[in-house]
Design goal:
- 23% of the residues lie in helices and 32% in strands.
- It is built from three helices and nine strands, in the order E-E-E-H-E-E-E-E-E-E-H-H.
């Protein structure tokens, strides 16, 4: 039986310097080129049939960033895109060397109806942002991921 809706998995990497910072990715391609606030996302991608969610999240993170997400991860509550796609996210404490960033590419007809195909990176840049800045940058449906991470880390400090 076919799956009802698409599922993605991704990683919300974070570090403490001393304040909490999260790693976000800016989508590549002409549609996103001039968008900033509300455009950034966690590195994520489609879960293939039969994939383990954690394995898929690690694979997609690497494909989109060229970084390897090793270590223990904490599952966050899934969020849903406007399209209905379910996104499973995992929090990972990691201070990545962003100079190693690279991304897979996709090809699209650009400009539209021109007959020309151009290649663009899936992600054109990544950066760590303090939580207050990340809340402005991240795409709206992923805001609950930031809130849950902040809540969970706050609970850890109280323990």
């Amino acid at each position: 039986m076919p799956r009802q809706k698409q599922i993605s998995a991704g990683i919300l990497a974070f570090r403490r310097r001393p304040e909490l910072e999260v790693l976000l990715a800016h989508p590549g391609g002409p549609f996103w080129a001039k968008k900033d606030a509300g455009a950034w996302t966690i590195p994520k991608g489609l879960v293939e049939r039969g994939d383990d969610l954690v394995t898929a999240a690690r694979r997609e993170f690497t494909e989109e960033t060229n970084l390897v997400a090793a270590g223990d991860m904490v599952e966050l509550a899934p969020v849903t895109q406007k399209s209905g796609k379910l996104v499973h996210a995992f929090a990972l404490e990691a201070d990545f060397d962003l100079s190693q960033f690279g991304s897979d590419r996709f090809t699209v007809e650009w400009p539209p109806r021109s007959g020309r195909r151009q290649s663009f990176p899936e992600i054109d840049r990544i950066a760590y942002f303090a939580l207050s800045a990340a809340q402005l940058k991240i795409i709206a449906y992923q805001l609950p991921l930031l809130a849950e991470l902040e809540r969970r880390l706050g609970q850890q400090q109280q323990s």
